Amino acid sequence: MTEFRAPLRDGRFVLYDVLDGESHYASLEACEPVTRDVLDSILDAAATFSEQALFPCNRAGDEEGCRLTDGVVTTASGFKAAFDAYREAGWAGMIGDPAYGGQGLPASIRLLAGEPMTTANMAWTMYPDLSLSAIHALGMHGTEAQKKKFLTRLLAGEWTGTMCLTEPHAGSDVGLLRTKAEPQADGSYTITGTKIFISAGEHDMVDNILHLVLARLPDAPAGTKGISLFIVPKFLVNDDGSIGMRNGVSCTRIEEKMGLHGNATCELVFADAIGYRVGAEHQGMRCMFTMMNSARLGVGMQGLGVMELAYQHALPYALAREQMRSLSGPKNPDGQADPIIVHPDVRRMLLTQKALLEGGRALIYYAAFKSDLSLYGADASKADAEALLSFLTPIVKAFLTEAGFECANHALQIFGGHGFIRDNGVEQLVRDARVTLIYEGTTQIQALDLLARKVLLTQGKALIAFIAEMKSCAADARQPLPDLAAALDALAEEWGAFAMSIGGRAATDADELGAAAVDFLMYSGYAALAYFWVRMALVAKRSAHRDAFLDGKLATAEFYMRRILPRAQAHRLAAEAGAATLMNPAPEAFAH
Fold first, then answer.
1. If pLDDT is split at 50, 70 and 90, which confidence band does 35 have?
2. Which of 121, 168, 312, 389 has a CB 3.0–4.6 Å from the CB of 370, allowing a cystine?
3. Which residues of 20-79 form beta strands (DSSP E)?
């Protein structure tokens, strides 16, 4: 694949025609106003930057990777130049507080602008995206002095940030961490410990890196309740803002990964490194979740980007590659064979990609709008928006990354042997995509969060609200799209009953929760996309200016509801089989 084109038309269709973005941005308070002209100019600029600066160095990131020499990481050809252009264009400070050099735009704008960047070069995008998480955490929990000293440099794109959670012995169980923080007389702390899998933990694109590190104070209680958050700069910062001496943090290795070679995944050793507490003592997890929730939407966007790039690989190839004849007779009689797009199963794979991709785009844009409303909406609507965002975040993160990996594999299958070799870039996409199902909380962790915390613990408040939207849409579609409307209405009724049935079983056997969680999450993802496909089909059906693009929406909606949505029933039946099928076999029964 020699070029990438940002999917501007489909993005604008979702933004303006489906989600009424103009009204959304007009309703926001206490942030910079965003008109359609402003948003379009941002999206156009993001597309140009992604196509011209990021995609051309994507292959170099995979082939060259990162090199560690004497504790210094050198990134691949083109990466630093792209970051310089990113900083000079002001992308780093889009959503930051203007008091510290930010542009004050709504949170969704950065996510939307980041879509083509993530699609064009996921490994590169992780460097600035980790900074975005640090910006959120410092903006919400940092002191005035910390914001002036650190946040201003992040918003200027002069420095980058990381999240330092994972330790070698603990993995995803952050409550087991051992990194220590010892208070000093001047109010600072010395941080000692080892962190692994730290994305963008060391690189050559900026002069300083700010590590946000979870650690324990000497009197901290065990588990997650005893964790505090600290900012630990790679280089200490003098009172006048200049860079001082090297801090006690070093990169001792970069992981040899199956994919994402362009991003340095580091082991960092903190040896009496100077750090500064962010937020209250023992409230590190609360502060970190400010970063994690932002990062999880970002990883969901990575899943969407994988789907987009997979489709942009697969579709042109299917149109051009000639192999065998159509089962119903030659479609290219002047050639020796027909293009493979005439074969039904190639069409199945292409339509699956298109259906998951375009439905996923509507889902994540909708979630981004809820993020805006939770921050800048009318006071009466903030709590409801926050609840819906909280409910949707694990679905966005887990379902879209699972779908992204599936779509990458469909692209490889369409290419056949030409996908398995390196020439066409599809195998890189499969390798890069795989980690998205793991980091920032695995699919299994997201599933437990969704079912236990976001549904059962809240008595399904946000789920009920989302189901109400589905039923309203089904009622609106009953006349123009009767079959789709009936399917959506039945699904809305079933989703709530499904959640209640799991809750009833889990009340007497906690293993029922774990046994059903992933199936419930996947069911929820398919159900959410069904809602957005009916919404998109309604817009297409009612349009006075039908064209091939809108006809494609109607055809794909029909395909999704008939060919993809039935997967939800398989997940429901599996979940309802209960925990006994998993938990009854003795360990000896696993012998092979």
1. very high
2. 389
3. 67-69, 72-74
Lowest mean pLDDT segment, chosen from 218-227, 261-270, 493-502, 509-518 = 218-227
DSSP 8-state secondary structure symbol assigned to residue 258: S
CA R_g for the chain: 24
Tell me how far apart the alpha carbons of residues 406 and 428 are, in angstroms, rounded to a whole number.
14
Q: Is the dihedral of CA 110, 116, 119, 120 positive or negative?
A: negative
Which residues are paired to 192 by β-bridges? 180
Q: Where are the domains of the chain?
A: 460-583
Q: Is 358 a catalytic residue?
A: no
**50-67 residue pLDDT tens:** 999 999 999 999 999 999
State the SS3 of 401-448.
HHHHHHHHHHHHHHHCHHHHCHHHCHHHHHHHHHHHHCCCCCHHHHHH
Concatenated DSSP letters for 333-353?
A: TTSSS-BGGGSHHHHHHHHHH
Q: Tell me the C-alpha distance between 410 and 348, whole Å.
A: 10
pLDDT at 287 over 90: no
Query: Hey, is 38 helix, strand or coil?
Result: helix
Which positions ≥6 away from 312 have C-beta within 8 Å?
1, 4, 5
**Nearest C-alpha neighbor of 484 from the set 529, 525, 537:** 537
Residue 521 has pLDDT above 80, yes or no: yes
Average pLDDT, the chain: 95
